[in-house]
Design a protein that fits this description.
The protein is an all-alpha fold and 236 residues long. It contains nine helices and no strands. Helix 4 (105-116) packs antiparallel against helix 5, helix 4 runs parallel beside helix 6 (150-171) and helix 6 runs antiparallel to helix 7 (187-211). The two termini are 27 Å apart.
Length: 236
C-alpha cells in the first residue's frame, strides 16, 4: 500500500473512531445556524413593529386611507423579503482570515472550514472535523501570545495562509480531474495528505503552548513547509 493510500485509509479510520467529535462539530455549526435564524426572527419582529408604529403615528397626522395602508404593507413585505435574504449561516471570506485577530482566528478558521465542507471529499471532511476539534482547544491558549510573537506568527501562517491555500488549490481543480493522476500525483490524495499534516501541526502547536515551550513552536516552520510543499502544488 502506498503512502497516499495509507493516508486515505487512516482518514477513514479517524472518521469511525472520532464520530462523536464530528457530531460535536456539527452541533456547533447547527448552533450557529440556529443563532442566525433567531436573529432573523428578531429582525422580522422589529420590522413589523416599526411599520405598525410608523403607520399609527402617520395616521394621527394624516388619515392613511387605502393608499397609505397599501404603502405600509408594501414596506413591510419589502423589509421581510430583505430579512429573508440575509444568510442564516455565518460566512467567512478567505481573505478575511489574514485580518482576523489572533485570538479569534481559530473560531473564524473553523467557520471557514465549515463553509468549505460540501466541496470536499469524505476523507477530507474527516480531517476537517479533527482540525475543528483541535482549533477549539487551541483558541484559549492563544490569549497568552502577543500578535508579533514568533509563535503567534507561526499559528497565523498555518491557519491564515497554508490551510486556505491548500483547500482553495484543490477547489480550483475541475471536479472530474480531482481523482485522476497528474504528474504522478492525485489531487484528492494530496489534499488529504496536506490536511493530515496541518491537523498534526495544530495538535503539536497546542501541546507546545500547553507546555510553555514557545521556542519549540516558533522553530518548526521549516519542517512544516517541507512537508506541506508537495501538497501545496495542488493548485499549480
Amino acid at each position: 500500500m502506498s503512502r497516499s493510500d495509507r493516508v486515505l485509509a487512516d482518514a477513514e479510520a479517524v472518521l469511525r473512531r472520532h464520530s462523536e467529535r464530528g457530531q460535536s462539530l456539527t452541533a456547533r455549526a447547527r448552533q450557529r445556524r440556529n443563532a442566525g435564524l433567531i436573529r432573523k426572527v428578531k429582525y422580522a419582529f422589529w420590522a413589523v413593529l416599526a411599520v405598525i408604529l410608523g403607520s399609527a403615528v402617520a395616521g394621527f397626522v394624516v388619515p392613511l386611507g387605502t393608499t397609505g395602508v397599501m404603502i405600509a404593507l408594501g414596506v413591510l413585505i419589502a423589509a421581510l423579503l430583505l430579512i429573508g435574504l440575509l444568510p442564516t449561516e455565518t460566512r467567512v471570506r478567505t481573505e478575511a482570515l489574514a485580518e482576523t485577530p489572533l485570538t479569534a482566528l481559530p473560531l473564524q478558521t473553523e467557520i471557514w472550514l465549515e463553509n468549505q465542507r460540501k466541496a470536499l471529499p469524505a476523507p477530507a471532511v474527516t480531517l476537517v472535523d479533527s482540525i475543528g476539534t483541535k482549533l477549539e482547544i487551541l483558541a484559549p491558549q492563544l490569549e497568552k501570545l502577543g500578535p508579533q510573537d514568533p509563535a503567534a506568527l507561526e499559528v497565523r501562517r498555518l491557519l491564515a495562509d497554508h490551510l486556505p491555500e491548500l483547500v482553495t488549490g484543490y477547489q480550483s481543480i475541475p471536479q472530474p480531474l480531482r481523482r485522476e493522476e497528474r504528474n504522478g500525483r492525485v489531487p484528492e490524495k494530496q489534499l488529504v495528505e496536506g490536511l493530515a499534516v496541518i491537523d498534526a501541526e495544530i495538535g503539536r502547536m497546542s501541546e507546545s503552548l500547553a507546555s510553555g515551550d514557545l521556542d519549540k513552536l516558533a522553530t518548526q516552520n521549516r519542517f512544516l513547509e517541507l512537508k506541506y510543499q508537495e501538497a501545496k502544488e495542488l493548485g499549480q
